[in-house]
């Protein structure tokens, strides 16, 4: 085994997919093929891969359950997982991203797209502020700034909204104050439960800026108690979305708050 090569786990219950994908990758990576999630977890006790390519629809343990199990184990939680699946409906893709997948490739795929995806996630470019600015130049599109400490949640938000809005994402809420005037978003989408600064504290920061007094604010939260919602509304938020969300629900709430039909 070439120890200088990156190690990739390929997990799929379809033999043809295992053979085809390994053939594409074998000249560049050390590829381990596994036909079930239980076999993957068994091998993980001996080998830690640099990346996992995993199908979703599998017997015994499907991809969604497998990634949740990976993320609860500290020694496996940081391994990037890319779903390689025939599933192509939007909400299924959003669900996978929200659970922690770094990407989703739809079968059938082009070999170049697979290689590009793997290279991107094996060698990620880190922004020091964990800020992603949408470079879309379409002046007709309104912008959304999503603030959440979960990279996977930000990926799912970006996937659900990209193309309809300019979607800026910020992982470090403490940096909101220094970037808010530069981005001038048309709507804020804020997580509630975050370390250092929670959603309520971010609302207060936003309202320190007179130009954003009337900018819509939507909470994206797992908290849905009447007391929590009442407190949020008293601070001036326009709406809230309870996690997990669907793409349509997210887009409908934003459309309602911004007042633009798509």
SSE arrangement:
Elements: E1 7-11, H1 15-25, E2 30-34, H2 37-44, E3 51-54, H3 63-72, E4 81-85, H4 90-99, E5 103-106, H5 111-122, E6 131-132, E7 143-147, H6 151-161, E8 166-170, H7 176-183, E9 187-191, H8 199-206, E10 217-221, H9 226-235, E11 239-242, H10 247-258
Parallel strand pairs: 1-2, 1-3, 3-4, 4-5, 7-8, 7-9, 9-10, 10-11
Antiparallel strand pairs: 6-8
Helix pairs in contact: 4-6
Report what the structure shows.
The chain has 10 helices and 11 strands. It is an alpha/beta fold. It folds into 2 domains: 7-122, Response regulator (Rossmann fold); 131-258, 3-Layer(aba) Sandwich (Rossmann fold). The strands form 2 sheets. A 6-stranded mixed sheet has the order 6-8-7-9-10-11, with helices on both faces. The chain has a 5-stranded parallel sheet with strand order 2-1-3-4-5, with helices on both faces. Helix 4 (90-99) packs antiparallel against helix 6.
């Amino acid at each position: 085994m070439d120890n200088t090569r990156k190690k990739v786990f390929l997990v799929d219950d379809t033999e043809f997919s295992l053979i085809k994908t390994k053939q594409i990758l074998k000249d560049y990576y050390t590829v381990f093929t596994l036909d079930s999630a239980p076999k993957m977890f068994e091998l993980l006790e001996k080998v830690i891969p640099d990346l996992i390519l995993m199908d979703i629809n599998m017997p015994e343990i499907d991809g969604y359950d497998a990634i949740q199990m990976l993320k609860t184990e500290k020694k496996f939680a940081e391994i990037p997982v890319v779903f390689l699946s025939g599933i192509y409906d939007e909400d299924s893709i959003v669900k996978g991203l929200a659970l922690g997948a770094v990407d989703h490739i739809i079968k059938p795929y082009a070999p170049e797209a697979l290689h590009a995806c793997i290279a991107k996630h094996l060698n990620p470019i880190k922004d020091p502020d964990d800020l992603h600015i949408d470079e879309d130049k379409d002046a007709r599109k309104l912008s959304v700034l999503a603030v959440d400490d979960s990279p996977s949640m930000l990926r799912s938000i970006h996937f659900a909204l990209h193309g309809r809005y300019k979607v800026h994402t910020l992982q470090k809420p403490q940096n909101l104050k220094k970037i808010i005037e530069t981005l001038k978003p048309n709507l804020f989408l804020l997580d509630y439960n975050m370390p250092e600064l929670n959603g309520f504290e971010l609302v207060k920061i936003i309202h320190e800026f007179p130009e954003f007094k009337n900018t819509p604010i939507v909470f994206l939260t797992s908290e849905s108690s009447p007391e929590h919602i009442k407190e949020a509304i008293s601070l001036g938020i326009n709406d809230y979305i309870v996690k997990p969300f669907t793409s349509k629900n997210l887009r409908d709430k934003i459309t309602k708050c911004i007042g633009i039909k798509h």
